């Protein structure tokens, strides 16, 4: 094994996977990384399993010393990464040597960056825990396997890289209570733009914009919610549930962000804007299947290089 030494922890640096599974019936939410797409892409590039733990970074980001040789890849937000002062690009396999230092000097795009290492990160965790906050002077162990061997010049095709922006249009399908909206509010949902509020966090993004109304304002029984569920609050504003969402909610579920577009939301910050585009379930399934096909092709290409 080799280790990463976190010389400076940065803000909200943590170890993340794609989240817990099988525990929602106990009221335990999945948690995990905010940008699943970035995590899956860079893990696949390195020959790791999709759910291999990664570092989730915010800016100012951590300063990391490599105590051994390892292949790594960055994805998600672009924080102007440098190894020993030399620029390092996202979505590309990079080989770090013993004594190299990874630093991040500025934000170009996005809010959350991810660091994956060939072989994967090892850390102690409590039962069911899928997150670990990082402090300074912490050593993180890396499993060195055949998959940690660098793939020279290997990078992810631009067609697979998410098109992050500060004003994305994300696709949604109708939620169970969509038809409770008035006709004017239905139109407003897909015509207007909405701003990410300052009270947004990993649990949910509060949206600010034109007030939406329901035909019937009666209360509803709490029902299941998930990552990307859009709920309508009593004040007529929306909240989009994010990675640390609760398992049940009592507010109307007027729409659901399709899984493929959740990374676009995950990279927003307060003050950014978002618009919604309505698609049907069949379209959402086609989009999801295409991404799975592309991931499979990437994995096959990586395997040929090993």
Describe this structure in words.
There is one protein chain. The chain has 306 residues and is α+β, with helices and mostly antiparallel strands. It is built from four helices and 22 strands. A seven-stranded antiparallel sheet has the order 7-6-9-4-1-13-11, with no helix packed on it. Strand 6 and strand 7 form a beta hairpin. Helix 1 runs parallel beside helix 4. The chain is elongated and about 65 Å long.
Gross morphology: elongated
What class would the helix/strand composition place it in?
alpha+beta
Distance between the termini: 20 Å
Counted by DSSP, the helix tally is: 4
Low-pLDDT runs of 5+ residues are none
Describe the main β-sheet briefly: 7 strands, antiparallel
Can you write the helix and strand succession as a string?
Answer: EEHEEEEEEEEEEEEHEEEEEEEHEH
Total strand segments? 22
What portion of the residues fall into strands of 2 or more residues?
25-35%
Which strands sit side by side, in order, in the main sheet?
7-6-9-4-1-13-11
Q: Work out the radius of gyration.
A: 20 Å
Overall average residue pLDDT: 91
Fraction of residues in H or I helices? 10-25%
């Amino acid at each position: 094994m080799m280790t990463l030494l976190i010389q400076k922890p940065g803000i909200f640096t943590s170890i993340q996977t794609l989240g817990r599974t099988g525990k929602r019936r106990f009221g335990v939410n999945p948690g995990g990384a905010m940008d699943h797409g970035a995590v899956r892409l860079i893990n696949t590039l390195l020959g790791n399993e999709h759910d291999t733990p990664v570092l989730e970074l915010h800016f100012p980001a951590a300063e990391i010393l490599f105590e051994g040789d390892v292949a790594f890849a960055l994805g998600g937000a672009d924080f102007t990464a440098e190894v020993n002062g030399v620029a390092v690009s996202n979505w590309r396999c990079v080989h770090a040597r013993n004594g190299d230092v990874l630093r991040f000097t500025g934000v170009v795009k996005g809010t959350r960056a991810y660091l994956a290492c060939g072989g994967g990160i090892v850390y102690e965790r409590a039962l069911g825990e899928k997150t670990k906050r990082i402090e300074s002077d912490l050593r993180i162990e890396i499993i060195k396997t055949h998959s940690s061997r660098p793939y020279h010049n290997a990078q992810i095709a631009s067609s697979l890289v998410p098109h992050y922006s500060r004003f994305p249009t994300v696709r949604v399908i109708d939620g169970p209570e969509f038809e409770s909206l008035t006709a004017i509010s239905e139109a407003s949902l897909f015509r207007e733009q909405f701003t990410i509020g300052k009270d947004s966090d990993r649990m949910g993004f509060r949206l600010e914009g034109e007030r939406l109304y329901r035909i019937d304002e009666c209360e509803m029984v709490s029902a299941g919610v998930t990552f990307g569920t859009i709920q309508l609050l009593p004040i007529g504003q929306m909240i989009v549930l994010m990675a640390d969402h609760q398992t049940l909610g009592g507010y109307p579920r007027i729409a659901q962000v399709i899984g493929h577009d959740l990374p676009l939301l995950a990279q927003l910050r307060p003050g950014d804007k978002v618009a919604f585009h309505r698609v049907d379930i069949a379209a959402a399934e086609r989009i999801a299947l295409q991404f799975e096909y592309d991931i499979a092709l990437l994995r096959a290409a990586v395997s040929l290089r090993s």
